[in-house]
Design goal:
Strand content: over 45%
Shape: flat
Strand order of the largest sheet: 89-96-95-92-93
Radius of gyration: 73 Å
Largest sheet: 5 strands, mixed
Number of helices: 0
Number of strands: 105
Oligomer: single chain
CATH class of one domain: Mainly Beta
Structural class: mainly beta
Distance between the termini: 131 Å
Length: 1055
């Protein structure tokens, strides 16, 4: 299981291993390992001792059965494990239960015993250990039996050959099944007549059957029956007839609403009935009288004049149409008022009238002289305004202007005159409308027209003027007639223009072109074109064109890796050819080409080994630790050169040799002999020239000396490491351990005798005994051979005797206080049973009746199979009805909730809650309810025994709006006498009044306030008293629960 490290290997197999090292002188050093893997030594020892004895093992004194292990070391230093299986044989004990009759004796351990008691005998068992037999001796007195018997008054009981009719105690002596005397005592009880009272309730209309009669009337009834004891039993019945529960409910809803009753949504007026069940199980009849209130409707037909308004449902109306208002009537239902409003237009008439300037016109009682639009308002047959509009036009005097032109020397006739002088002339005429018309003449006399003209033509051209073609510069005159028919003189100044010549000199770059008269020129030369000048004459243009050639340049450059070269706005870091285009002083392209070379980084790797403790010079440092080191140098080109050193520091070789030898042996290593245990160090040189250190851990093993015990049965023999053992004694065996060292075992042998025992059983009939997993119910005698704790044979002889047996098993039960119980027991039907306890209906019967008021235990007896009295008990547990502590009835407002809590006498009481005969919560200590009307809640409490108690709670629901506490007057007499002069509203309830509006019969709002109880209406509108009549009020507010309500009704003014 161990391993040995040699030459870097972990070895765990015997063999010869060789390693070649290098000495300090550089020569080979050969190390040879002869490895022996010693086996682990293990031995098992079994031992037996008697209870109370001890066994010494590995320096310990052992007294308890178990497996113990000792770890020793063999002579070669390996583990030697000795395992001891120690068995402590128990002291054999046996108990005998023996019964004899008074006057008899029993032989035990050589003694004749006749006194009851416990006796002990110490014997030696077959394994040599103590065997203790205990005798429980019972000396039976005379068997005494008591019989409790009941008879009815007038009956008799036979006992000991006598016929008994009187209550008392009687005795008779018999012989039991054991042959001992048996004394029977009779307790005779003469039973009186039994009387029982029953309390029963039924529902009205039901019947209860009692003594063959069907009863339907409450009262007390008596029946004579036969009790379970066979005696007369008089039963009295107190019968209660519970009345049928009936309730009438009246409810009003508005048309369109519904009312939920008995699971139905009702919308029609009528009487409805629901049949429910009360908590007592009787019928509960609820009758609903439902009234559906119709929706109130009213139609108003109203006419107003245009520009008037009509107030309706808070709105000011001025447009014809039909309007609807939804109000709330005094019953709380919708009241719909429909208004048919007609707006009568005004009657309009227009008069258009003309008068001459200076005249007048009479309209609406006025004398009008000024033009304009005038209105007059009259009253129509409907009482609305009739408007007449006058559009009056005052005609001015007609004035006409005439503009007339004549040539100088001509005349113009106007109003009978011949005019030849320019000027303004006036004439007065009469227009078609009958008003004056004035004509004004503006006369103009035109002088002759003289026009001066200037013109130019190109040399070689002609100019047409007054029918002539002119080509010479000069002044010319022509006479014409104007559009007005008068003379027009034109003077012409003519100029003849010469043809010019222009020369242009231009340069372009090679590859460019020059646009010249629609041509793109790219070749040097002289070009000529004819153009037109701004005056329209020919112009000769001469172009002298020069083409400038493109310039090119090449640059060769080398840089180091990690350097950059700026070129044409770029930072270059990679080898390559780059081109840039520049502009020369002549404005033409100049192309520069760059050939860039990036020199690579020079890297060189070195690997070096040194021994631990040496150093290596690198990059100006003395290195002593293994690792990777870097040094940067500069090449002839000026770039970096990186040298990387991988340095390995070889550690000193250290080897450990663990070796075990037997006492007296020698171990040789590296030319030296070792005989004593210890730690040794040897220094060598490895093949790498570094030091190699070997550490030897040498262990010298002592000889093993072990004690062992063996046990064998009588007649057996065993082979112990080649030695045959068949008799008790001490033996010595010498062995060689797994390590090869001597191991001496001292063997202590014990031969055990065989064990024998007799066992007898006495059973009642029906009983059984289990022997070796087999059940025996019949008499038998047989022997069985076992292996004792020592492993030797143990012979047991069994004898089984059967005696007829009788058994009783009582059946417990639980009742509620006030209930009866029938006592029951599991027993053979032929057994005579005798009961003991208070309140038994009989004592010598199979199932007596009892009515305990507290938990009581009753005893039932009979004669057993051995003639003794056997008994059993029946416990009747009496549970009281659970007690409840409930709160008082509560009152809440509609919409609120209430928490009902019941405290009980015990935490295991279950509470079930009912409302209207329906279960609403099961097993709830507390419930929260929010009924919308007064409701009775019933809680039933039951404990684990099924006993019950019932209680009722009433949750009264108050009307949260409390309309009955809002007092509204229906009439007022505003005559300032200090009595009933204002419309009074009082509210003593929980509701909040928020606004009051009052309307007249046309729906016009005549009063409004948000301070209902303090800002009182005095019967006026716009500070004027209103006439006697009926007016409508609309009252708005919120109930205590936050619901909005609207109440409306009538208020009468009486004057």
């Amino acid at each position: 299981g161990e391993s040995y490290t040699f030459n870097g290997q972990s070895l765990n197999t015997s063999g010869i291993y060789v390693d070649t090292l290098q000495s300090a002188g550089g020569c080979d050093s050969i190390v040879t390992l002869d490895l022996t893997v010693n086996e682990q030594y293990a031995e098992n020892i079994s031992r037996q001792i008697c209870e109370g004895q001890s066994f010494t093992f590995d320096g310990q004194t052992l007294t308890t059965s178990g497996t113990y292990t000792a770890n020793l070391t063999t002579v070669n230093g390996c583990d030697s494990i000795v395992t001891l299986d120690l068995q402590v044989l128990p002291q054999l004990t046996e108990t005998l239960d023996v019964e004899i009759c008074a006057g008899q004796s029993y032989l035990f351990d050589g003694q004749n015993l006749n006194i009851g008691g416990t006796y002990t005998a110490n014997l030696t068992s077959a394994n040599g250990c103590d065997s203790i037999v205990t005798l429980n001796l019972s000396v039976l007195d005379k068997i005494r039996r008591t019989i409790d018997q009941q008879i009815c008054a007038g009956q008799s009981y036979t006992f000991g050959g006598q016929t008994l009719t009187i209550a008392g105690t009687y005795q008779d002596t018999l012989v039991s099944a054991f042959g001992c005397d048996s004394i029977v005592t009779l307790n005779l009880e003469v039973l009186d007549q039994l009387t029982t009272t029953l309390d029963q309730s039924i529902c009205e209309g039901e019947t209860y059957t009692f003594d063959g009669q069907s009863l339907s009337t409450g009262g007390t009834y008596t029946a004579s029956l036969t009790a379970a004891s066979g005696c007369d039993s008089i039963v009295t019945l107190n019968l209660t007839v519970n009345e049928q529960y009936a309730q009438n409910i009246s409810q009003q809803i508005c048309e369109g609403q519904s009312f939920t009753f008995n699971g139905q949504a009702l919308t029609t007026t009528g009487t409805y009935t629901a049949n429910l069940t009360t908590i007592k199980g009787c019928d509960s009849i609820i009758t609903l009288d439902l009234q559906v209130l119709p929706q109130l409707t009213k139609t108003l037909d109203v006419e107003i004049c245009a520009s008037q308004t009509y107030l309706f449902d808070g709105q000011t109306l001025n447009t014809s149409g039909t309007y609807t208002a939804n109000l709330t009537s005094a019953s709380g239902c919708d009241s719909i008022v429909t208004l048919n409003l007609a707006v009568l237009d005004k009657i309009r008439k227009t008069i258009n009238q003309q008068i001459c300037s200076g005249q007048s016109y009479t309209f609406g009682g006025q004398t009008i002289t000024t033009p304009g639009t005038y209105s007059d308002t009259l009253a129509s047959a409907f009482g609305c305004d009739s408007i007449v509009t006058l559009n009056l036009e005052v005609l001015d005097q007609l004035t006409t202007n005439l503009d007339q032109t004549i040539c100088s020397g001509e005349t113009y006739t106007f109003d009978g005159q011949s005019l030849n002088t320019a000027g303004t002339y006036t004439a007065s005429l009469t227009a078609s409308s009958g008003c004056d018309s004035i004509v004004t003449l503006n006369l103009q006399v035109i002088d002759p027209v003289v026009v001066d003209m200037a013109a130019s033509i190109c040399a070689g051209e002609t100019y047409s003027f007054d029918g002539k073609n002119l080509s010479t510069t000069g002044d010319y005159t022509a006479t014409y007639t104007s559009a007005a028919g008068c003379d027009s003189i034109i003077n012409l100044a003519l100029e003849v223009l010469p043809a010019p010549t222009t020369t242009i000199t231009e340069e372009i770059c090679e590859g460019q072109s020059y646009a010249f008269f629609g041509k793109n020129l790219n070749t040097a030369g002289t070009y000529q074109e004819v153009a037109t000048t701004s005056n329209g004459c020919d112009s000769t243009v001469i172009l002298e064109l020069t083409v400038v050639k493109q310039k090119n340049k090449t640059i060769n450059k080398t840089i180091c890796s990690s350097q950059v070269y700026p070129f044409d706005g770029q930072d270059l870091t990679a080898s390559g050819t780059y081109t840039a285009t520049f502009t020369s002083v002549a404005g033409c392209d100049s192309i520069v080409t760059l050939n860039l070379v990036v020199a690579d980084l020079i890297e060189h790797n070195l690997q070096q080994q040194i021994c631990e403790g040496q150093s290596y010079a690198f990059g100006g440092q003395q290195l002593t630790v293994s690792g990777t080191y870097t040094d940067t140098l500069t090449t002839s080109a000026g770039c970096d050169s990186i040298v990387t050193l991988e340095l390995e520091v070889t550690s000193q070789i250290k080897t450990t040799v663990d070796q075990t030898i037997c006492e007296g042996e020698t171990f040789t290593l590296a030319g030296k002999n070792y005989t004593s245990a210890g730690v040794y160090t040897i220094n060598l040189t490895s093949s790498s020239g570094c030091d190699s250190i070997i550490t030897l851990n040498l262990d010298v093993l002592d000889a093993i000396d072990v004690d062992d015990e063996v046990t064998l049965c009588e007649g057996e023999s065993i082979d112990y490491q080649g030695l045959t053992i068949n008799a008790s004694g001490d033996y010595e065996v010498t062995l060689t351990s797994a390590s090869g060292c001597d191991s001496i075992i001292h063997v202590h042998a014990t031969v055990l005798d065989a064990y024998r025992e007799d066992v007898s059983y006495t059973l009642c009939q029906g009983d059984s005994v289990i022997i070796d997993g087999q059940s025996y119910t019949q008499a038998a005698s047989f022997s069985k051979t076992y292996q004792a704790a020592s492993g030797c044979d143990s012979i047991v002889t069994y004898a089984i005797e059967i005696i007829p047996e009788k058994s009783l098993v009582g059946i417990d039960q639980a009742i509620c206080l006030g209930d009866d119980a029938i006592l029951k027991v599991n027993a053979a039907s032929n057994l005579d049973l005798y009961w003991e306890g208070p309140g038994l209906s009989c004592t010598e019967c199979r199932q007596p009746k009892v009515s305990p008021t507290e938990t009581t235990t009753y005893t039932v007896k009979t004669i057993g199979c051995t003639g003794d009295t056997i008994s059993s008990q029946v416990t009747v547990t009496v549970y009281e009805a659970p007690e409840m502590i409930k709160p008082e009835n509560v009152e809440i407002k509609k919409g609120e909730s209430s928490t009902l809590t019941v405290q009980t006498s015990s935490p295991d009481v279950i509470l079930d809650w009912y409302a209207n005969g329906e279960l609403i919560c099961s097993n709830c200590k507390t419930i929260t309810v929010n009924p919308d009307k007064t409701t009775t809640y019933t809680v039933e409490a039951s404990n684990p025994a099924g006993c019950m108690a019932v209680a009722d709670f009433i949750v009264f629901v108050a009307d949260d709006c409390e309309f009955d506490k809002i007092e509204i007057a229906n009439a007022m007499t505003p005559n300032n006498d200090g009595r009933n002069d204002e419309f009074l509203i009082r509210n003593s309830g929980s509701s909040t009044l928020e606004s009051l509006k009052i309307f007249n019969r046309w729906g016009e709002l005549i009063f409004s306030t948000k301070n209902v109880e303090n800002d009182l209406w005095d019967g006026t509108y716009k500070n004027a008293p209103l006439n006697s009549g009926v007016y409508v009020y609309l009252l708005e507010g919120h109930c205590a629960a936050g619901d909005r309500f609207v109440k409306s009704g009538n208020i009468s003014i009486i004057r």
